[in-house]
Structures are given as structure tokens and as C-alpha cells.
Amino acid sequence: MRVAAAMAQVEAVKASENEALKRLEATRKEIEDMKAATVEAKKRAEMAEAAKMAVEGELRRWRECEQKKAADAASRILAETESSVESSLRHFRIQMQNSQMKTAQGRKMEKSKTSVLKKTLLPTLSGMFNKEKEPD
């Protein structure tokens, strides 16, 4: 009986050892799967980081381009505004000069009309008052 009990005990130990080996193998398999998943996740993270850097670089170039366009547009508008203001000032000065010339010409015309009127009207009026009375 001792031999049978020892044999049964050996069989139980072998079964336990097989059970432990199966669990060990399953754990190793899980570790390998985790390592593979970790490597794959790291690879995807690196690819995502590279894509992020590329997108950020492109966005930075786009912003710089847009800022340059805005600056160019602002300077063009400023130049056009300054040109327009100068043109308006020139136009205003010319109008003022023309207006002053017309006013001066109008005054000269009035003076000459008045002087012509005085020359023609005064002698006739003075002639009427200074005329000697004709004998009846």
C-alpha cells in the first residue's frame, strides 16, 4: 500500500506540476501578447506624434502666410488711403484756388460794371440836374 500511496502521490504531484506548467505557459502567452500590444501602441504613438508635428508645421506655415497676406493688404490699403488723401487735398486746393479766382474775377466784373454804370449814368443824371432851364 505504501507503494500505491506513493504512486498516487507522484501522480498528484505530476498533475499539479502539469497544471502549474499550463498556467505558466498561459502567463507567458499573456506577457508576449502584452509586449506585442505595447510595441504596436508605441509604434502608433510615434506615428501620431510625427503626424501631429507635420500638421503643426503646416499650420504654422499657413498662419505665417495669412499674416503676410494681411500685412500686405494692410500696407496696400494704407498706401491707397494716403494716396487718396493726397489726391483729395490736391483737389481741394485746386477747387479753393478756382473758387478764389472766380470770386476775384466776379469782383472785378462787378467793379467794371459799376464803373461803366457810373460813367454812363452819372453824366446823364448830372446833365439832367445841371441843365439850364430853357426859357419858355
UniProtKB/TrEMBL annotation:
Name of the protein described by the UniProt record: Putative WEB family protein
Family under the similarity heading: Belongs to the WEB family.
Gene Ontology, cellular component aspect: cytosol
The keyword Protein biosynthesis is assigned to this record: no
Entry keywords, A to Z: Coiled coil
Keyword Hydrolase included in the entry's annotation: no
Organism: Rosa chinensis
GO biological process: chloroplast accumulation movement; chloroplast avoidance movement
Parts forming coiled coils: 7-51
Origin: domain of life: Eukaryota
